[in-house]
Design brief:
By secondary structure, this protein is an alpha+beta fold. The protein is 40% helix and 33% strand. The chain is built from three helices and five strands. It is globular and about 45 Å long. It starts with a helix and ends with a helix.
């Protein structure tokens, strides 16, 4: 009986280790607005806003610029408006597991842009 109990305990322990750990999904917060500018200037302003707000790992990829803070990740996306020439829609997305940090960062980035 001892051997059976030991085997059962070991199997329960192994099954607990094998179960995937589910992390909490981050909150995602966004904002957007239209501007009379071009993609290049939108990207320059986005990069400057991220740097001014203390984000690191800033990277430009096509029409977007992203960066990381301690508790959040942010990305600006610059989109040409087909219907209104010479205007851009800039979208800001911030994701974090800390809602207050994400909202504070989003507002700081909006002001810095």
């Amino acid at each position: 009986m001892n051997r059976l109990n030991t085997l059962a305990s070991t199997m329960m322990g192994l099954s607990a280790i094998a179960l995937p750990v589910q992390a909490e999904s981050p909150g995602v917060y966004y904002s957007w607005r239209s501007l009379e500018t071009d993609i290049t200037q939108c990207l320059v302003r986005s990069e400057a806003a991220l740097a001014e707000s203390g984000l690191v790992g800033i990277a430009v990829d096509g029409n977007s610029v992203s960066g990381r803070a301690e508790a959040a990740t942010a990305v600006f996306i610059c989109l040409e408006n087909v219907e209104a020439l010479e205007t851009i829609t800039v979208m800001l997305v911030v994701a974090s597991n800390e809602d207050e940090s994400a909202l504070t960062l989003r507002e700081a980035l909006k002001r810095a842009f």
